[in-house]
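Many introductory courses stop at the sequence. We go one step further.
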Amino acid sequence: MLTPIFYFVVDSTPLTALSISTIIMGLVSVALGNARPNVSPEASQMMLRTGVENIAILLEELGLRSRAVYLPSSVSGGRPRALIPLSEDGAALKWDRVPSDRLIVRYGPNPEDMGLSVITPGGISLDSLELRPAPAQIEGTLSSIIVGIMDLADSVSAHLSSDRVLVEIAKPKLRYQNLWFHRCLGSPLASIAATVVCEALDRPVRIGSEEETGKGIRVEIEVLP
């Protein structure tokens, strides 16, 4: 719906390309959610990289540098989403004001308080679950998605504290480093982890840090007030 508007009305090539790439990312994510029986792990990784690359190109084109805030489905009204502020100087996000059916959303009273709202692969993968995961099920849910459905790592562990969740992913099979995507959304595996955590806790979260260890990847996810 937004693609022709961006092209013919707004006359914005970057936003037109962004809407197209978001559609591609959604289709790729749907395929990945059902990839285990029909698609090899190598093909799944290639499809995921293709979708991520499209988003990364547009983030670079728009010059976005803000870290994404991952919103649970109770806030977005549909699937969990990641909101990327267009300006690093915007107001504090108003979670109850974020529309669920828009790519470009307004979250505050000022003109610069706008952002991109995108569905992530983790949000699509959660469709395979019958119920929202509970906080105690974060580790099991991540293992089911990352290890079981997508076959992207050997194991996953999660440690929950009051204001953060530490996720460790052992022997990841997807190595992807893109400065723009990583700066805004984290690595694809970190993005999946943040999506599951925000949904399980029913709280907005942000990736605080991500680092490689001798065993794999350690992701620290901040739970926002």
